[in-house]
Amino acid sequence: MNRIKKIAVLTSGGDAPGMNAAIRGVVRCALNNGIEVIGFLRGYSGLLDNEFIEMDKRSVSDIVDRGGTILFTSRSKEFMERTGQLKALDILKKNNIDALVTLGGDGTFRGALELNKTSNGELNVIGVPATIDLDIACTEYTIGFDTAINTAMEGVDRIRDTSTSHERCSIVEVMGRNAGYIAAYTGISTGAEDIIIPEYNEYGDINKIITRVKIANKKGKKHYIIINAEGIGQSYDMAKMIETMTGIETRATILGHLQRGGTPTCKDRVYASIMGCRAVEVLLEGKCNRLIVYKDGEFSDVDIKEGLAETKPFPQYFIKTAIELESK
Ligand code: F6P
User: Fold this and answer.
1) Closest ligand 1 atom to the C-alpha of 16?
2) Which ligand 1 atom is the nearest neighbour of the CA of 13?
3) DSSP letter at 143?
């Protein structure tokens, strides 16, 4: 017999395209199974203010195609403290919440885990990975990544046009926090000459890049695109250095938050919908403290604590491929 009567859902941390599709999945699947749902606004911060909306079926109509999150999001400092977590737990208890479904990145899930600990295991917490960074080791897919890389790819395609016209070198900085996934995908998909990621410093050695820019220029190359990961940063300084050392006009563009917005791709809509539904299914199966993951071509779930403890090396085939694709 299913003990879950009422759940809450929230989105926390940086928003990610597809979050709305996941919220819709959670709400529809819960309501279809007789579970009441409320949505806390502005992540843990709204939870601490007891700001929520009742989620009926209409509340998630016409949102599958919308970027951002209808529940709003934030990063709450107050919730990081034990006093904040005790307060949050009290509010959840007063609202008769049996389980909290959180959409976000690892910080969001660590917060959820803290809540579970503080409640002595009473509050069931479920995590749905939603971050453009793809930096959660236990899953090969995170909601929003696909849209972000397509947006970044289109941005770089446009930059290449103007870069070629002016015969310039361009450094394009993409998001990803400390992870180089967005940079690797963007770089390979746009045929960038260099990709600089935190996981592989050697490839991004500035002196080697400068030498490569000079050689490419001698060979008559009309543009030189460098994709730099946010985790490396310093794009403006690098641009100055390349220009000084090569004599080739160089510009830096930081793509920034435009990578987080926009209508989600088909993949993000579909995978996020599945993950949202799966979050409720695991509750119906009587499971506790699970993280919904995508691994080896399957959607499944892992223990949140174990999932968060996982680490994974950056896939070598990205680096190998990028090097093999270099025009020598
Ligand atoms: O985690 C998603 C992300 O967009 C990162 O790539 C980036 O480092 C960070 O969030 C930016 O955060 P903010 O929106 O607070 O500037």
Assistant:
1) 2
2) 1
3) B
Instruction: Kindly give the distance from the C-alpha atom of residue 241 to the centroid of ligand 1, in angstroms, as a whole number.
Output: 27
Q: What is the secondary structure of 231-252 as a DSSP string?
A: TT--HHHHHHHHHHHH---EEE
Handedness of CA 96, 272, 34, 69 (dihedral sign): positive
- Ligand 1, residues 45, 73, 108, 133: which to mutate, most atoms within 8 A of Cβ? 133
Is the Cβ atom of 173 under 6 angstroms away from ligand 1?
no
**Ligand 1 midpoint to CA 204 (Å):** 22
Position 204 scores a pLDDT of 66
Q: Considering only CA atoms, which residue is closest to atom 15 of ligand 1?
A: 14
Distance CA 10, CA 76 (A): 13
180 lines ligand 1 (CB under 6 A): no
Residues annotated as part of the active site:
133
- Domains annotated for the chain, with CATH where assigned, are 6-144+264-309 (3.40.50.450), 146-260 (3.40.50.460)
| pLDDT higher than 90, residue 205 | no
**Ligand 1 mean position, distance from CA 321 (Å):** 27
Show Cβ contacts of residue 327 under 8 Å, excluding neighbours closer than 6 positions.
193, 216, 221
Q: In this structure, are residues 2 and 49 in contact, taking their beta carbons and an 8 Å threshold?
A: no
Strands, sheet with 169-174, edge to edge from the N-terminal-most edge strand:
194-196, 224-229, 169-174, 250-254
Instruction: Report the candidate in 276, 214, 250 with the shortest Cα–Cα distance to residue 69.
Output: 276
- Report d(CA 90, CA 87) in Å as an integer: 5
Q: Which DSSP letter does residue 41 get? A: S
Give the pTM: 0.96
pLDDT at position 116: 96
Give the distance (Å) from ligand 1 centre to CA of residue 203. 24
List, for residues 225-277, the tens digit of each pLDDT value: 999 999 999 999 999 999 999 999 999 999 999 999 999 999 999 999 999 99
